[in-house]
Amino acid sequence: LTRKCLDVMGATPFDFVYEKRTVVTGFDEDALVMVSGKEFSLIRTVGGKVLYQGKAASLGIKQSNQAQGKWAELTITKSPKIVHITLGHDGLHALMVAEDGSVYFVGTARRGEDGDASGGKNVRRQPKPSKPRKMSRLESKFVTFASCSSGTSAVVTRDGELYMFGKDTNNHCDVTTGLVTDLKDVQVTQVCLGKAHVVVLTSKGHVFTFGINNKGQCGREFATHGVSQRDGLNITMAEDEDENEVDDNLCPPGKHK
């Protein structure tokens, strides 16, 4: 019998080997997907389990007997079968979509990326890692897809709706629900978050982009002020002065050198 192999390259803060090597989880189930963030990596297995490696405390696990470089199963309440996982580049949180349409948040929420309406994206929180927990704001929705970036979460529902939470939700999300209202007339199937821009795929194969466009990452004409538009819609992404959301070399308006 053959087994699927998963190879990785490069070092991380929790794995200092640079050479290409095969991931050995120590579990019988084959690994299907692997995602990596700033302090931990996750693997989704063929059976719907989620494994983790890295800093256990970043996943809300206060005490762990996990050896350095070893994989362990991430405990999720009621052990749902996970069908999709996502973790943003340099991110501190992950989203896990279950077979029943529920979505789980794990990691650290600083700008409302967990969908907690009590704070909001403009409210700075004391960073506190959280164990896997359901995003209660989406309990009435059947989620099929999700994406993360550093400080932002996005999910797609079975009805084709796109919801976003966190720092990059200025002007285009309903403040109560998180629904991206300007895309409510299209059937969204997938979403992908970049550092400060968003790419959306619809059921008709159309692609919508919005957000910071300082390097042409929105796939359209270069926007001098870092904002792309769709049919006159002016969408600005929240800039975090402490996190260098826009390239430091981008000249201020009217002061190009």
TrEMBL record:
Cellular component terms (Gene Ontology): nucleus; plasma membrane
GO BP, sorted A to Z: axon guidance; regulation of synaptic assembly at neuromuscular junction
Top-level lineage group: Eukaryota
Residue ranges of the region described as Disordered: 112-136
Pfam families registered for this protein in UniProt: RCC1_2 (PF13540)
InterPro entries named in the record: RCC1/BLIP-II (IPR009091), Reg_chr_condens (IPR000408)
Signal sequence, renumbered to the chain: none
Transmembrane segments: none
A GO molecular-function descriptor: ubiquitin protein ligase activity
Biased composition (Basic residues): 122-135
Protein name: Uncharacterized protein
Organism: Arion vulgaris
Upper classification of the organism: Eukaryota, Metazoa, Spiralia, Lophotrochozoa, Mollusca
